[in-house]
Design goal:
It is built from 1 helix and 4 strands; from the N terminus they run E-E-E-H-E. It has a single domain, classed as OB fold (Dihydrolipoamide Acetyltransferase, E2P). Helices cover about 10% and strands about 45% of the residues. With about 70 residues, the chain is mainly beta.
Length: about 70
């Protein structure tokens, strides 16, 4: 599988939090850091996600905003 996105981070599903419409997916990277994504519950079911599943977090953004106070 190939993507136009340059940021592809492999990890394992640490936790799934199912809501009525969306599912929060917590992915633990090999470094120990976590990435959280919110996807539709239908997508989570189609992907057959479960804790321990190996996944890739694909990050595609046209802008990243940094702010300080």
């Amino acid at each position: 599988m190939q993507f136009s996105a340059r940021n592809v981070l492999k990890g394992k599903v640490q936790k799934l939090v199912n809501g009525p419409v969306n599912t929060e997916v917590v992915v633990r990277l090999p470094s120990g850091e976590e990435i959280v994504s919110v996807i539709t519950r239908t997508s989570a079911e189609k992907l057959k996600l479960k804790e321990g599943s190996e996944v890739s977090a694909v990050i595609k953004a046209s802008a990243v905003i940094i702010a300080t106070e």
